[in-house]
Design goal:
Structural class: alpha+beta
Number of strands: 12
Largest sheet: 12 strands, antiparallel, barrel
CATH architecture of the largest domain: Beta Barrel
Order of helices and strands: HEEEEEEEEEEEE
CATH class of the largest domain: Mainly Beta
Number of domains: 2
Distance between the termini: 68 Å
CATH superfamily of the largest domain: monomeric porin ompg
Shape: globular
Radius of gyration: 27 Å
Strand order of the largest sheet: 1-2-3-4-5-6-7-8-9-10-11-12
């Protein structure tokens, strides 16, 4: 009986030693599996952060593009835009038209809703339609913004407008791209041209996945006591 108990104790000790010794291996395998699952889940999502400073003040943007397999090559794009007490949420569908080493063309139609949190009265702006166009052809890059801002449906005294932004850049080298840019705002409430600012833009690479953009333009619809010089500084980080 004593011999049987002795062997049982020895067997339990051996089992415990193997169990304790295998814990790091099990943990490592589980950790690696978790990392692989996280990488697989994250592989279909790209994101970006942006900050602009112009006549509206300093604005913050954060967005992401989700590309699940069931969308069949399309992507679900979302972003938030914040300036002062105003916040905007945009949702859209990314449509890749051409995607090759020499040519890339995609469209991003979106719709947005804006809230002025200084006045807790619900939505204050419908930002639609929106259409963003992105074209890369070798060393040439073209980007176009088309946005409608409809505010009068929430506030009868607020105005409505239509905004256009287009720029064409030529890459001088891996760090610098320059070209013309024009921005137009149409006043839909009173009619006529609210703003027209042609100018020049430069994009400068600030390390991997970082871009600094500087736009200097001339506002043709300026007041008599204004120089008309305007522009924007932009920083974009992608991942």
């Amino acid at each position: 009986m004593k011999t049987y108990m002795l062997w049982l104790v020895r067997l339990l000790v051996i089992v415990c030693i193997f169990a304790v010794g295998s814990l790091p291996m099990v943990y490592a395998d589980a950790h690696e599996a978790g990392e692989e699952m996280a990488e697989e889940e994250a592989s279909g999502v790209s994101g970006w952060f942006r900050t602009d400073t112009d006549s509206l003040g300093t604005q913050i943007w954060v967005g992401a593009s989700h590309s699940p397999s069931f969308l069949g090559g399309f992507s679900l794009d979302t972003d938030i835009y914040v300036v002062d007490t105003f916040g905007e949420l945009d949702v859209g569908i990314g449509i890749p038209v051409v995607d090759s080493d020499s040519l890339s063309l995609s469209f991003l139609p979106m719709v947005g809703i804006g809230f002025d949190y200084a006045a807790p009265n619900g939505p204050s702006s419908l930002i639609a339609p929106q259409l963003f166009t992105y074209l890369t052809a070798g060393s040439i890059y073209f980007e176009s913004w088309i946005q409608g801002f409809f505010n009068s449906m929430f506030d009868e005294e607020a105005g409505d407008s239509f905004y256009l932004r287009n720029f064409l850049l030529l890459s001088v080298n891996d760090t610098l791209a320059v070209g013309p840019q024009v921005e137009v705002t149409l006043d839909l409430t009173e009619g006529g041209l609210g703003s027209l600012a042609p100018g020049l833009r430069a994009n400068v690479g600030y390390g991997e996945n970082n871009t600094l953009g500087v736009f200097v333009g001339f506002e043709t619809q300026k007041g008599d006591d204004e120089t008309g010089i305007t522009g924007r500084m932009t920083f974009v980080r992608t991942w």
